[in-house]
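Researcher: Please generate the 3D structure of the following complex. Treat every line as part of one assembly.
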Amino acid sequence: METQTQTVKKENKVATEKMTGAEAVIRCLLAEGVDLIYGYPGGAIMPVYDELYKYQDQLHHVLTRHEQGATHAAQGYARASGKVGVAIATSGPGATNFVTGIADAQIDSTPMVCITGQVGSHLLGSDAFQETDIIGISTPITKWNHQVTKAEDIPTILAKAFYIARSGRPGPVLIDITKDAQFGELDFTYSKCKGVRSYKPVPDTDPKSLEEAAKLIGKAKKPMIVFGQGVILGEAEEELKNFIEKSGIPSAWTILGLSALPTAHPLNVGMVGMHGNYGPNKLTNECDLLLAIGMRFDDRVTGNLETYAKQAKVIHFEIDPAEINKNVHADVAVMGNVKHTLTKILPLIQPNAHDSWLQEFRDYDAIEYDKVIKEELHPSKESLSMGEVIRGINEETKGDAIIVSDVGQHQMIACRYAEFTKSKSNVTSGGLGTMGFALPAAIGAKMGAPEREVVAIIGDGGYQMTIQELGTIFQTKVPVKIVVLNNEFLGMVRQWQQLFFDKRYASTEMVNPDFVTIAKGYHIEAKRVTKREDLQEAIAEMIASKESYFLEVCVEKENNVFPMIPTGASVSDIRLS
Amino acid sequence: MERENFTISVYTENNIGLLNRISAIFLKRHINLDSMTASQSEIKDVFRFTIAVKVTEEQVKKIVLQIEKQIEVIKAFYHKEEDIIYQETALFKVESKLLFEERQIQNVIKNSNANIVTVTSEFFVIEKTGRRREVEALYHKLEPYGLMQFVRSGRIAVTKDKMHISKILESFTEEAV
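Model: Done. Output below.
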């Protein structure tokens, strides 16, 4: 730390300015290009809020209705914009309410800087009012965290925070600032962090690994690509597309890889994983070469590891060395940012096509369409399905919208059926599975990409976990579109109870309030649809609206999401019913 | 894969939260540490954790990568028993009168290559440095006479091979600037 401070000071000959630590926090944020933050004030962070008041024309603060909402909004902002999301809160309960959002950002590699106030340093350890050890609490769920007790440390530490949050494999950073550090004075200068001794964000790419990978690709008869969010985080969408098109390899996405390639791309074979598509899951266990690109072999992707792609050679393109051989053995590990490695490997491979192999995916697609998709998108039953709502949204948005989904059945249906034409269009809580994520994340996504349509798809359960953020929407007038797919159940848990617990529906039936009235209470235009003949018109009205809009669709209570890989089963044992 | 004794060496920056961060990696995986010590290293401002743990080699490989992933960790290594020179230190506090009443105790001390570090009229303190089994052997010999206190340090170890930390640090510095 000290060495770094010294180099920074040496390099920077700009005259310093005297100011308080609190003002320095704002000036650091501005220097990092931040113009929007999410937060909630309170005792230990009040000096910073006082400065926010002075800088409000340069730095917009969005008051969420709960600190958890601030973290999810910052995540949504980061995922839609590619920039670092910033959330700010007070000590104690303010800080602990950050925990879920931080854990979510950690497991989904979302760049986020969280700033929390802390009691004065003389009170640390005295169980002072609203004192909590947020450094201790957040250690296992942050990429880095640090407590600042002196005003003069603020610029260096915040510069380091932004650098760490966004570099390499991104993640959340928490900076805890004691109240005396906010009040204290410093000579302010700021220079962006360019590196941290002991931290190597991007590992070197071994040229031999590229050659070996190219050799395996050249020999493969049935290669398959599974790509994840690493492509989006590395801004490697174009490189991925070039690689896929030259190699002719059928390519599946993980849930967080959604939208990195257009849905309609001829080599896009859909989603892998527990509720993914039939073909890519089945054929994972038939391919002779599996290319994992910017993905981490989550258990929801692999099912039983003992029977996962055992017949295949595996090439893992990855930025984080700790992911290599963590869950699946890599025959070749290609380290580095995939934007770089996919560019480097392109000239080493021959143009190819795998038409008959691709046809195997399409044959499975036909089976899946017949057994599952047809009924989901065009139900023969009177009751509405979740899938037909997503289909209706696709028709109105033409795949241009950012789809923000919560967690549960509606999420799986949204991820299975939403169509995407551009990247950064899927914002969902993948790794942590955080119910309550979508409403605040949609607020952040819309603010991060104001030119784009943002549609939140939420279940009636998760919606009520962060429903208070309707207040944020009302106050900021952010025009997000909210669709609640109401089946009056915690549907995914109910599905498991039906399939694995003999239909003992313990605490999954929801007695819900009048959601339309609640939305109207926040002066948000709202409509409820219960009949098919009203659905498309309501969706069209919602999408056409220039303001925020709430649409509740009452769907079939006991539909199940299929296909499904039961936990502990092999990917190739995926069930269609 | 069999569980075996591994020693993990971690070179780090001196950061207040790092002990917590490293131990959390073991906690998350429900792995009990045999011992953990932290000290200065041979390089100025670089600290060194020495962790002894019984796991499979596959586990220790993954753990080392997770440790290395922490921002302020410079480098982590794992070693098998044959790759290192390792020691522990134990202190035994014994009543002084035993020295006179139990003549055998003097032979025990002599034969164990232990040092007497303090003698008072009430007690004396024996220090024994060595491998775990040597310390344990002395413990079993002294225990029947009655121990007022016993304490043993964590394992410390140096490797037979070079670890090139200075070189690694230089490479970081080159990239950082």
